Structures are given as C-alpha cells and as structure tokens.
Amino acid sequence: GENVEQHPSTLSVQEGDSAVIKCTYSDSASNYFPWYKQELGKRPQLIIDIRSNVGEKKDQRIAVTLNKTAKHFSLHITETQPEDSAVYFCAASRKYRLAFGKGNQVVVIP
Amino acid sequence: NAGVMQNPRHLVRRRGQEARLRCSPMKGHSHVYWYRQLPEEGLKFMVYLQKENIIDESGMPKERFSAEFPKEGPSILRIQQVVRGDSAAYFCASSPPQASNNYGYTFGSGTRLTVV
Lengths: 110, 116
Known about the structure:
Chain A is mainly beta. Helices cover about 0% and strands about 55% of the residues of chain A. In chain A, strand 4 and strand 5 (about 45-50) form a beta hairpin. Chain B has strands spanning about 5, 10-15, 20-25, 30-35, 45-50, 55, 65-70, 75-80, 90-95, 105, 110-115. Classes of the chains: A mainly beta, B mainly beta.
C-alpha cells in the first residue's frame, strides 16, 4: 500500500517567516494530495489539495508544489502568524483511501 | 447544511466493554469512511461503507471491530471487548457518490475513546 513520510517532525519559525513541510510518497499511481491542519483536540481540516496533473497550487498564504518524478510534494506557508501553529498532515491517494503522513508540528514564535 | 456529525465526542470504557461510535454523514452523502488516529500519529484508514454495503474493510482489525451503515440511521463503528490499545480518536468522513474518488473529505469532530 501507499506509504507517506513527512519531514521535519517539528518546525519552529519566527512570526512573519516562511515554513516549508515536505512529504514523500511511494505509490506512483497516487494522483491526489491533500493537506490537513489539526489543532489540539480538534478535527483535521482540509486546507489545500493538489491533483497530479498540476505542479503547483496557491491559496493566499499557502501553496503546495508537486514533483511526480521524485514523488514528493511540499506545503509552503508564507508570512506565518501565531494562528498557523498546529500539526499539519499530508496525505496521498489514488482512489478513496487516503494514506496520511505522521504529521508536522509547526510552532510560530511571536 | 450540517457537517458530518459524530457522537459521542468522548467515550470512556473499561477493558472488556463494548464501544459504539456513531457517524451521521452530510445531507445527500451516501458514502462513509472511518479513520483512526492513535496519539501523535496520522490518521489510518479503517473502512469504507455505502448504504447497506461494506466496500472496503481492509484497514479494520479482523477481530472485535465491525462497521455498518444501515438504510436508515447513522453509520456505526462497534468495538467489542475493548483493550487499552483501542484508545484513540476515531474520525468519520462522508462523500456524495459521484465524488468518492479523490475527494477532499471533511471530517467530523471525532470520538475520543479512552479505555481504562
């Protein structure tokens, strides 16, 4: 089955700086890559997604890039704010079944 | 349009008891997916159901776990004879039939099961 890995496990950034989280996947047939944000004790919330026919997608301060050849994709958060502090999960799928990474704790330091 | 509703939010069970977790999909959605999140881990797929049908239960342990989605009423995830290792957050998501593949699922608020 699909295996998704995330790096780094914890990321601390100064407020206003950028944060980048990288994920790799193993199944070359995967064609859908969502990112979820989860605050402590809450549900994972979809923040952005990308499909394999697209290399990059942007939504305000967040963007996702996909490199199908290398089988990795990244989340970019610019101008970080304290409310960006959370755990971020990447996932990959080719049908209905999402395979999640273990998550990255992002801490934005005011 | 209410989102995916799960109840209870918190459930405490003693070892050996049964846990029943309920998930009501969004209106118009007939597909339900259950995921489990162990502490400090990502979500793991458990089971995919349509009304009155189990489509894929390959992520669910063979023993003690069962799931159903009846014609009427919510989807139920049942865990019999719970053990400490079952302590986790259980999340449910739903989708309409035409979007079951590669769909940006919205998860419910989850049920946090604690086995004591």
